[in-house]
């Protein structure tokens, strides 16, 4: 029975370590890549292609 207990403790430790690593990864990603503000309705500008240069410009 002792090998089963050691195996169970190893599994519990591995799960705890995986949760710790996942939480830390989410924290670091949130710090490095803050959420972009949501686009506001009405801010979108219609673009029109300039036939001479091929560049898109606001209408």
Can you walk through the features of this model?
The chain is mainly alpha-helical. The protein has a domain at 1-36. It contains 1 helix and 2 strands; from the N terminus they run αββ. The chain has a two-stranded antiparallel ribbon with strand order 1-2. The longest helix has 31 residues, at 2-32.
Comma- or semicolon-separated keywords:
mainly alpha, two-stranded antiparallel sheet, 1 helix
Topology record:
Layout: H1 2-32, E1 47-49, E2 56-58
Antiparallel strand pairs: 1-2
Question: Measured on Cα atoms, how large is the radius of gyration?
Answer: 26 Å
Distance between the termini: 77 Å
Tell how many strands the DSSP assignment holds: 2
Major sheet characteristics = 2 strands, antiparallel
- Give average pLDDT, whole number: 91
What's the helical proportion of residues? 40-55%
Count up the helices.
Answer: 1
Quaternary assembly: single chain
Which structural class best describes the helix and strand composition? mainly alpha
Strand fraction equals 5-15%
Q: Tell me the series of helices and strands, N- to C-terminal.
A: HEE
Residue stretches low in confidence (pLDDT < 50, at least 5 long) are none
The strand order across the widest sheet is 1-2
Shape: rod-shaped
Short characterization:
By secondary structure, this protein is mainly alpha-helical. The protein has one helix and two strands, in the order H-E-E.
């Amino acid at each position: 029975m002792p090998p089963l207990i050691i195996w169970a403790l190893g599994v519990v430790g591995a799960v705890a370590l995986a949760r710790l690593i996942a939480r830390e990864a989410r924290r670091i990603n949130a710090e490095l890549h803050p959420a972009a503000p949501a686009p506001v309705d009405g801010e979108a500008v219609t673009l029109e292609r300039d036939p001479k240069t091929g560049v898109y410009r606001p209408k």
